[in-house]
From TrEMBL:
Keywords: Aminopeptidase, Hydrolase, Metal-binding, Metalloprotease, Protease, Zinc. The lineage of its organism: Bacteria, Pseudomonadati, Pseudomonadota, Alphaproteobacteria, Rhodobacterales. Its EC number is 3.4.11.2. InterPro entries: Aminopeptidase_N-like_N, Aminopeptidase_N-like_N_sf, PepN_Ig-like_sf, Peptidase_M1, Peptidase_M1_dom, Peptidase_M1_pepN, Peptidase_M1_pepN_C, Peptidase_M1_pepN_C_sf. NCBIfam families: pepN_proteo. It comes from the Bacteria. Residues 531-846 form the Peptidase M1 alanyl aminopeptidase C-terminal domain. It catalyses: Release of an N-terminal amino acid, Xaa-|-Yaa- from a peptide, amide or arylamide. Xaa is preferably Ala, but may be most amino acids including Pro (slow action). When a terminal hydrophobic residue is followed by a prolyl residue, the two may be released as an intact Xaa-Pro dipeptide. This is Aminopeptidase N. Belongs to the peptidase M1 family. Residues 216-430 form the Peptidase M1 membrane alanine aminopeptidase domain. It is an enzyme of class 3 (hydrolase).
Length: 846
C-alpha cells in the first residue's frame, strides 16, 4: 500500500508568480498530440516564494525555454522545477501526450474518435506543465491544428483556416476551466439577445445522428440565460456559448468557460428515448453549468477546499430555477428525498465531512453530496436567517466585490455580514462541522400558552468529536383541532443546545407543523401518534409537511412491519384520500403515494441502535405495497383513465406530473393484477416515460421477459436507451437475483465497462438495490470488489465513486460486516491502487 499524502487547508500559500497570459498550440494526433505552450510569468507581489514549480503528470517533455534560451528543468514528482529570472519572463515548452491511451478521462482524451478535455479539478496538468491551481488565473489564446471538422476551445473564435482554428478567451480563468474539443461534430444552432442587447451565438455540438435530440437542451439554455438576467441580474459575457455532448464522461457536465462539456446522457433528449425525469434533469444541469459562468467562473475558488463556494451556490441557484420552471413544492420534496437518501447517509458514516473540508488526499473524492447538496442547504439556511431582501443585497455585493476573484467561504460570509449587519460566527459552523444535527421536540399546553422545546445534538464524525450547537431556522405553523391554521409559518431561530418558544392566546392545544419546507437539513425527532400524522397529512397547508406526514406514517409502519406488525389503517385511509384529492397536483400525489426507501429504513433503525435486516425490510416493503395496492384497488383504474395524456408529448411539469401519477397507479395495480395492465400499457406506450414505467412494472412482478427482448431489439442502436435497459434489470430484480443479474449483464457483449454510463447502469443499480447488494452471502460485496479492482487502473475516479456502495457496512450484522470488511481489504490489497480508491477504502474501513 502506498503512503497517502494529505493536503491541508491551513497550509495554503499563494503561488510565487502571476501568469500574465497563456498561448497554447495543439497539434492533434490520437496517440502523439503535441502541446506547445508560451506563458508570460511575473513575480507575484503578494508572495515571497520564488519556487518555480509547475504541475505536470504523464507528460513527455521535448524541450523548454526561458526567455528564448534552452533550459533543462528538474523533473520531479508531480511536475518540474526550474531556475528563473527574478523579473518577468517567458516560459515555453513542448510536450507530447497520448489522448487515445487516456482511459481515466481526465486531461485530453478521446471518445468515439472525438478529442475532448476534462480539467476540473486537476486535469490540466495532464495536458502541459502549468501552475494547476484555481487561484492562478490568466487569459488564454489557443490554436488547434487538426483535420477535424469542428475545432473548439474557450472564449470567442479569433481566426481559422483549413485544418486549424484559433480561440481567444478575454476573461482570466484558472486552468481547470480550460477546454478543447475536436471531432466530426454537427451543431444545432440558436441565438440569444442579452439584456443589454448583445447578440450571442449558441450551439449544441453532437455526433452525426444526434441532431434530433438537441431542441430541448437549446430551449433550456435560453431559459437559463433569461432567468439569470431576471433573477440575479447576471448577463452572459462572450459572443458565443458552445455546449458539446460526449459519450465518455466521468460526471454529469462541466462548466468550462464558453465551452460547456456534457455527458450525452444529461443533454440529449427526445420523447421517444428520454423519460420525464431525464428531461427535468437535463434542464437542471444545463442551467447549473450555465449559472457557473458567474458563480464559479467569473468568481472562482481560491483553493479546492472552497469547492462548495461555487458548487453549493450553483446548486442552490439551479434548484431555485427548477422551482420557478416546474413548481416549488414538488421540487423541494424531490431535493429533500435526494438529500436524505444520499447526504444524510454520507454524513452519518465513515465518509462524513463538512461542506468545507479542511483536508483531503484526492480532491476528486470531494465532489460529494455534502459539498453540492448540503452546500446548497447551507445557503437555504442563510437565506432564512437574513431574509429574501438580505439575500438579494448580499448577492449583489458578492458579484460586485468579488468579480474576477478566486474567493473563499470567509469572503462569502463577509459579504453577508456587510450587507445585512448580522454576525455569522455561529452560522459558519454549518460550513466547518460535519454531521447532521438531530433535533428533539417536546411540547406542552398550559393556560392558553403553547410551548415547543427543542434540543439539538450532533453525533461525532471522523476527526470531529466536539459538536457545538448550531443556529437552526425552524419554520413552524400551528393548526387548531379542526385543521384550521391558527399561526401561519414563522421562523424560530434556535441557537442553543436546548431552547423553548411559546405561543400565547390559544383556545385549545394546537397541532404543530414543524420544519415546514424543510427549513434546515436536520433530523427531526418527535414522538407523535399515528393520528396526529394522519391529521397533518389531511390538513397541513404546507405541502412539504403534508407529504412529510405521510412519509413519517409510512416509515413507522414499515419499521413496525419489520418487527411483525401489520399495515396501519390510518396510513391506508390517508393514502386513499390523497390519491382521490383532485385539488392536489398529480405530481404531488405521485410523491405522496411513494414509500420511504429501504436504505432510509435501515438508516433509521441503525440510528435507533437496532441492527437492520435487509431481507426483512424488503419483505415489509413488499407487504406494504401489496396492502396499499389492495386497499386502493378501485382507485387505480380511475387514476389510469384520469391521468392519461393523449396528444403530442410535452415534457412540461403538468404533463409529466400526470404521467408520474399514472406510473404510480400502474405500479400498484401490477401488484394485484399480475402485470396484465402493464403489459397492455407497454404495447400502447407512446413515449419513453410510458414504455419504461410499464417495463419496470412487469419486471417488479417477475414478468417482462419478452418485452426485455423486444425493447433491446428496438433500441439496440441507442446507447443511452440501452443504459436504461441494463439498469432496469438490476434495479427491479428480486434480492436473490440482483447480483446474478448484474453478473450476467456484465458478461453481455454490449457491456462496455470502460464507459462510465454503462458501468454505472449495472453496478450503480446493484449498489442501490438495498436487499440485493446486502445479500447475506456477501455476493454483492464480492462482485463489486471484483469490478472495482478491475476498473481502478483504467478509471480511478469511477472506481472511487462506486466504492461508496460500502459506506454503510457497519450498520449491519456481524456476518455481513465480516464479508464487507473482507471485500474492502481485498480492494485495499490490490496492487497499484489509485490514490482515489486508496483514500476511499482507507476511510471506509476506519
Ligand atoms: N464542476 C462540475 C462537475 C465536475 C467536477 C469534476 C469533474 O471531473 C472530475 C467533472 C465535472 C459541475 O459542478 O457541474
Ligand atoms: Zn457545479
Amino acid at each position: 500500500m502506498t503512503i497517502q499524502e494529505t493536503i491541508y487547508l491551513s497550509d495554503y500559500t499563494p503561488f510565487g508568480f502571476i501568469v500574465e497570459d497563456v498561448h497554447l498550440t495543439f497539434k492533434l494526433a490520437p496517440t502523439t498530440t503535441r502541446v506547445i505552450s508560451r506563458i508570460r510569468f511575473a513575480p507575484n507581489p503578494d508572495s515571497s516564494s520564488r519556487d518555480f514549480f509547475l504541475h505536470g503528470e504523464g507528460l513527455n517533455l521535448h524541450w523548454a525555454k526561458v526567455d528564448g534560451a534552452d533550459v533543462a528543468p528538474d523533473l520531479v514528482k508531480g511536475g518540474l522545477r526550474c531556475d528563473v529570472p527574478d523579473t518577468a519572463f517567458t516560459w515555453e515548452c513542448e510536450v507530447e501526450i497520448d489522448p487515445q491511451g487516456n482511459t481515466a478521462l481526465e486531461g485530453l482524451y478521446m471518445s468515439n474518435g472525438m478529442y475532448c478535455t476534462q480539467c476540473e479539478a486537476e486535469g490540466f496538468r495532464n495536458i502541459t506543465f502549468y501552475p494547476d491551481r484555481p487561484d492562478v488565473m490568466s487569459v488564454f489564446t489557443v490554436r488547434i491544428e487538426g483535420d477535424n471538422p469542428a475545432l473548439l476551445s474557450n472564449g470567442n473564435p479569433a481566426d481559422s483556416g483549413e485544418g486549424w482554428a484559433e480561440w481567444h478567451d478575454p476573461w482570466p480563468k484558472p486552468a481547470y476551466l480550460f477546454a478543447l474539443v475536436a471531432g466530426d461534430l454537427r451543431n444545432y444552432p440558436g441565438s440569444f439577445k442579452t439584456m443589454s442587447g448583445r447578440d450571442v451565438e449558441l450551439n449544441l455540438w453532437v455526433r452525426p445522428g444526434d441532431e434530433g435530440k438537441c431542441a430541448f437542451g437549446m430551449e433550456a439554455l435560453k431559459k437559463s440565460m433569461i432567468w439569470d438576467e431576471e433573477v440575479y441580474g447576471r448577463e452572459y459575457d462572450l459572443d458565443i456559448f458552445n455546449i458539446v455532448a460526449v459519450d465518455d464522461f466521468n460526471m454529469g457536465a462541466m462548466e468550462n468557460k464558453g465551452l460547456n462539456i456534457f455527458n450525452s446522457a444529461v443533454v440529449l433528449a427526445s420523447p421517444e428515448t428520454s423519460t420525464d425525469a431525464n428531461f427535468e434533469r437535463i434542464e437542471a444541469i444545463i442551467a447549473h453549468e450555465y449559472f457557473h459562468n458567474w458563480t464559479g467562473n467569473r468568481i472562482t475558488c481560491r483553493d479546492w477546499f472552497q469547492l462548495c463556494l461555487k458548487e453549493g451556490l450553483t446548486v442552490f441557484r439551479d434548484q431555485q430555477f427548477t422551482g420557478d420552471m416546474r413548481g416549488h413544492a414538488v421540487k423541494r420534496i424531490n431535493d429533500v428525498v435526494t438529500l436524505r437518501s444520499r447526504q444524510f447517509r454520507e454524513d452519518s458514516g465513515p465518509l462524513a465531512h463538512p461542506p468545507r473540508p479542511d483536508q483531503f488526499v484526492e480532491i476528486n473524492n470531494f465532489y460529494t453530496v455534502t459539498v453540492y447538496e448540503k452546500g446548497a442547504e447551507v445557503i437555504n439556511i442563510l437565506k432564512h436567517l437574513v431574509g429574501d431582501d438580505g439575500y438579494k443585497k448580499a448577492l449583489d455585493l458578492y458579484f460586485d466585490r468579488h468579480d474576477g476573484d478566486a474567493a473563499t467561504i470567509e469572503d462569502w460570509l463577509q459579504v453577508f455580514e456587510d450587507a445585512t449587519g448580522r454576525d455569522l460566527t455561529q452560522f459558519k459552523r454549518w460550513y466547518t462541522d460535519a454531521g447532521t444535527p438531530h433535533v428533539k421536540v417536546a411540547d406542552s399546553f398550559d393556560n392558553g400558552i403553547y410551548t415547543l422545546t427543542f434540543t439539538q445534538e450532533t453525533a461525532p464524525t471522523p476527526g470531529q468529536d466536539d459538536k457545538p450547537a448550531r443556529v437552526i431556522p425552524i419554520a413552524v405553523g400551528l393548526l387548531d383541532p379542526n385543521g384550521n391554521e391558527v399561526l401561519p409559518t414563522q421562523i424560530l431561530e434556535m441557537a442553543e443546545t436546548t431552547q423553548s418558544f411559546s405561543f400565547e392566546g390559544l383556545s385549545a392545544k394546537p397541532v404543530p407543523s414543524i420544519l415546514r419546507g424543510f427549513s434546515a437539513p436536520v433530523v427531526l425527532e418527535r414522538e407523535t401518534s399515528a393520528e396526529e400524522q394522519a391529521f397533518l397529512l389531511a390538513h397541513d397547508t404546507d405541502p412539504f409537511n403534508k407529504w412529510e406526514a405521510g412519509q413519517a406514517l409510512a416509515k413507522d409502519c414499515l419499521i413496525a412491519m419489520t418487527q411483525g406488525g401489520t399495515p396501519d389503517q390510518g396510513l391506508l385511509d390517508g393514502m386513499t384520500t390523497v390519491a382521490r384529492d383532485h385539488s392536489l397536483d398529480p405530481a404531488f400525489r405521485a410523491l405522496a403515494l411513494g414509500l420511504p426507501a429501504q436504505d432510509d429504513i435501515a438508516a433509521t433503525l441503525a440510528a435507533r441502535g437496532i441492527t437492520p435486516d435487509p431481507d426483512k425490510i424488503w419483505r415489509a416493503h413488499q407487504a406494504l405495497k401489496q396492502a396499499i395496492a389492495q386497499h386502493l384497488q378501485d382507485v387505480w383504474p380511475r387514476l389510469l383513465a384520469e391521468m392519461a395524456t393523449p396528444g403530442p408529448y410535452s415534457p412540461d411539469a403538468e404533463h409529466a406530473g400526470k404521467r408520474a401519477l399514472h406510473g404510480v397507479a400502474l405500479a400498484y395495480l401490477s401488484q394485484i393484477d399480475g402485470g396484465t395492465a402493464a403489459k397492455a400499457a407497454y404495447t400502447t406506450a407512446g413515449n419513453m416515460t410510458e414504455q419504461l414505467s410499464a417495463l419496470a412494472c412487469l419486471l417488479s412482478v417477475e414478468k417482462g421477459t419478452d418485452e426485455l427482448a423486444t425493447f433491446r431489439e428496438q433500441w439496440q442502436h441507442d446507447r443511452l436507451v440501452m443504459d436504461k435497459w441494463f439498469g432496469l434489470q438490476v434495479g427491479y430484480a428480486s434480492p436473490e437475483n440482483c447480483v446474478a443479474t448484474a453478473k450476467r449483464l456484465s458478461e453481455d457483449a454490449d457491456f462496455n465497462w470502460k464507459n462510465p454510463n454503462r458501468f454505472r447502469a449495472v453496478f450503480g443499480a446493484m449498489m442501490m438495490h438495498h436487499a440485493g447488494f446486502h445479500q447475506a452471502d456477501g455476493s454483492g460485496y464480492n462482485l463489486l470488489a471484483d469490478w472495482l479492482i478491475k476498473l481502478d487502473p483504467v478509471n480511478g475516479q469511477i472506481s472511487a465513486r462506486m466504492s461508496t456502495g460500502y459506506e454503510t457496512w457497519k450498520r449491519y450484522d456481524a456476518d455481513r460486516q465480516a464479508k464487507a470488511r473482507a471485500a474492502l481489504k481485498r480492494i485495499n490489497g490490490a496492487p497499484d491502487l489509485s490514490r482515489n480508491l486508496g483514500e476511499m477504502v482507507t476511510r471506509i474501513l476506519k
